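Lab manual, section 2.4: Encoding a predicted structure.

Procedure: take the sequence of the chain (264 residues), apply the prediction step described in section 2.3, and record the output as structure tokens. A sample record is shown.
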Amino acid sequence: MKIAAIGDPHGNLDKIRKIPLKKVDLALITGDLGQTDILRKQALQYLSIPNPGPKERLFYAEGFRQAFLTAHETALKIASYLGGCCPLFIVRGNADLSNYDTRKFSRTFGIELPFLYQHLRTIRGVQLIDNRVANFKGLRIGGLKYFTDICWAEEFELAGIEKIRKIALRDTDKISRVLGRFGPVDILLTHVPPYGIMDKVNSKTIPPSWIGRHAGSKTVLEYVRQNQPKYVFCGHIHESEGFEKLGRTEVYNLGAGGCKIVEL
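Recorded output:
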């Protein structure tokens, strides 16, 4: 069978349409489905306001709602298009807002917002495989949604911030238990790359002191070393798109909308 693994689309349907999906049996996406540039800008502007009150929330509400709807609608378009071509397995990226975050933003700005993951479940052919193993024609495919590894907090000198450290320790423990349940798989689909494998950051939007640091996960790295799946497909660090081998495992960072078609 042929499988198309696709990197974080970020709403770029034109790029996705160039992939010959009619010739594959299954598509995989590493997360970050929708276009979130405007949403991220709106959120950062709002968070930069010290002690925002009702006046500030009202001022930002409509702009935030429009930015959120853009992210939501472009994500659904990507999923609907892919699901219409072939079966599709998805894991969540850091730009894919959870139901919890959606509720929080709805309350903050006093607006109604749609829930992405409820809508994705209604699209025929689409499966969310966050933190579970899915079987496809005898293949075991493990899916890992975005999480914060404690090694990331330490690498970027953020472990001293109590809130970040608490989240990172909780997430790392959870993912360790998830991977322990996985056992060996044929394919690992993960938003976050393994530590040291195509995970160096080099972006204009980050502090200069972060450039060249590793944003991958040591938890994922250890799992791959021990279990040696045939393929690992990841995204998240778009500037590190490429291919490396880790033992017998072929690791592909698919970047932003990149694609690798493999045959098993």
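Check your result against the sample. Residues 54 and 109 are 9 Å apart (CA to CA).
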